[in-house]
Amino acid sequence: MDGRLRLLLIEDDPGDAFLVEELLADSGLDVEILHARTLGEARRKMSARIHCVLADMSLPDAGGLDLLREVLGLTGRAAVVVLTGLADAHLGVRAVALGAEDYLVKGEVDGALLARAIRYAIERKRAEESERRLVEARIVSRENARLERGLLPVPLIDDGTLAHHARYRPGRRRALLGGDFYDTVQTADGSVHLMIGDVCGHGPDEAALGVCLRMAWRTLVLAGHTGEGLLATLNTVLGHERRSEELFTTVCTMTVDPSRRSARMHLAGHPAPLLFDGSEVVSVPEEPSGPALGLPTDLVGDDAWPAADIELGDTWDLLLYTDGLIEGRIGQGSARLGTEGLVALAREARGAGASGDALIDALMARVEALNGEELTDDVAVLLLSRQESR
């Protein structure tokens, strides 16, 4: 409440109305009283500025519990206190059950009791409103969480020699989805296609755009599109779907050959993956590469994102990640971890025997420890590992 308490008194008896005004004046309560003699007049005088409604249950144009229902329907956030001449305990219980904050009988209250009842009614109403908003917020939060979980990808892989692991951590607090996105799909010819991307920014609009691009990528891959042509099409999709021409997206795509001994990579302004060969860890060369997605389509063609062929060997791990993993600080200065720092951490983790989920968790834990706090940018990590079949 800001300033005086504002009360709407719904009472058709002038004597009773005068008595209420006198009681409240004697109580010392700082109150501004608006008086309505009928339900119709109360409708006209009711506003969001009213803190409490003090209502009789017998008016010329309505009465009883039906009157109370009408009053409750027009009060909004205001508390409602019944002040009536009907000393009926059963009616009082029903009135409170309908939503009234209190039930008072004329002639049984003095100024102090009436003022206290009004104050308590306003506080109870405020507490109920806060609880209602909290419940609504929790419901919306749960619905958003279910939606966001449903938008995270389920890898499509049918190869017993491959193990797929992923981690996703949005930069937004209390969010499950950010602007990073990833996916893995195996096609009918046996090739396994991996993709990871990063929409600049990490708000809800960027998250929606990331989901759009991921779904477009999966659809194109399942339809038989790969390589430079696929990225050109994604660039067109981005141009149509983004809310601002300044939004761009970095992407790394890889196609693992059916033999599982080589892969073809395309980089669109994205950090190159790490390749694990036993205990050795190297960063895949970042050249050749192309620009991030987001350029006008008339400035880029299918040859804007050249391919790089990578030899994998018999057993290997490929770690794809977004730049949130390497842009954390190392120490108190402004130095960043970078790709070389991530390679060093990966060698330590592999040397300690970490693999699969444990490898990703160890890397993220070390990166955050060096940063001194949780990472503020979105982070997505995808790890595909291959062991020789027995």
From TrEMBL:
GO biological process: phosphorelay signal transduction system
Classification via PROSITE patterns: RESPONSE_REGULATORY (PS50110)
Alphabetized CDD domains for the sequence: REC
Keyword match RNA-binding: no
Residues found modified as 4-aspartylphosphate: 56
Gene3D superfamilies on file: 3.40.50.2300, PPM-type phosphatase domain
Domain of life, source organism: Bacteria
Domain (Response regulatory) ranges: 6-121
GO terms for MF: phosphatase activity
Signal peptide range in chain numbering: none
UniProt cross-references to InterPro entries, sorted A to Z: Bact_Sigma-Reg, CheY-like_superfamily, PPM-type-like_dom_sf, PPM-type_phosphatase-like_dom, Sig_transdc_resp-reg_receiver
Keywords, in A-Z order: Hydrolase, Phosphoprotein
UniProt-listed SMART domains: PP2C_SIG, REC
Stated name of the protein: Serine phosphatase RsbU (Regulator of sigma subunit)
